[in-house]
Design goal:
253 residues, three-stranded antiparallel beta sheet, mainly alpha, 4% strand, transcription, DNA-binding, single chain, globular
Length: 253
């Protein structure tokens, strides 16, 4: 039994782009091809995809997922046991944090202590709480999330205006660079990628280069992030990904 790309996207809730990307990097190579050359996935391929999505949900970068799944000493039961342990630990941590911050969350979601009028005055048509629930679900148990909450809770209306002004200025310059044909591996693009990393480190939480590389992958693999960056200029999400990776390489080589 084999399945087409369209069938797999329906089963797993992933995009065609994601499946193609996994194939390109060797993480999930379909077992067969149709007579027309289209990808065909076996039941074993679907099992591997399930494992990939488990680890991705737990925040593992793609290279670590590949290393885990290709470990010759591991068996499928070992993967399931590991994932169960990680999920159980994550659930317990989230419960502890929820109990500690429940009151604060009700009063000031995402730490932005502004009236609705002030919030949209600062952020325009971008709702700063749009992905708050998902951010908490994905990273609520991490020190980075806790640190971002601590910092945001102290920010004033003027602070948030400065945050947005920096974002707007960076976006304008990066869009201009892409429009002018600047290469992701060029010094100007890498400098803007470094500025992006420092902005998050300055206002939210410290972003090491390895974490920034994970962000870069997410900007392409997550359709919402990709749509956000590509709305500035088509292809900008992929361009930024490559610039972040190039910048990380020059600083960690």
């Amino acid at each position: 039994m084999s399945y087409s790309v369209g069938q797999v996207t329906g089963f797993a809730g992933v995009t065609v782009r994601t499946l193609h990307h996994y194939d390109d990097i060797g993480l999930l190579v379909p077992s067969g091809r149709s007579h027309a050359g289209h990808r065909r996935y076996s039941d074993a391929d679907l099992d591997r995809l399930q494992q990939i999505l488990f680890y991705r949900e737990l925040g593992f970068p793609l290279d670590e997922v590949a290393a885990l799944l290709d470990d010759p000493d591991a068996d499928p039961r070992a993967h399931l046991r590991r994932q169960h342990e990680l999920l159980t630990a994550r659930i317990e941590k989230l419960k502890q944090m929820a109990a500690a911050v429940e009151h604060a969350m009700e009063a000031r979601k995402m730490g932005i202590n502004l009236t609705p009028e002030e919030r949209f005055e600062v952020f325009g048509d971008k709702d700063p709480e749009q992905y708050a629930a998902e951010a908490e679900e994905r990273w609520g148990g991490t020190e980075a999330y806790a640190e971002s909450q601590r910092r945001a809770a102290s920010y004033t209306k003027e602070d948030w205006k400065r945050v947005q002004a920096e974002v707007d200025d960076w976006q304008e310059r990066y869009t201009a660079l892409v429009a002018a044909g600047g290469q992701p591996s060029g010094e100007a693009a890498m400098d803007l990628a470094e500025e992006h990393r420092r902005h998050v480190s300055k206002w939210y939480f410290e972003v090491p280069y390895e974490m920034h590389k994970c962000f870069a992958e997410m900007y392409v693999s997550d359709e919402r992030f990709k749509a956000y960056y590509d709305s500035m200029r088509p292809g900008l999400a992929e361009h930024l990904r490559e610039a972040i990776l190039a910048n990380a390489a020059r600083h960690t080589a």
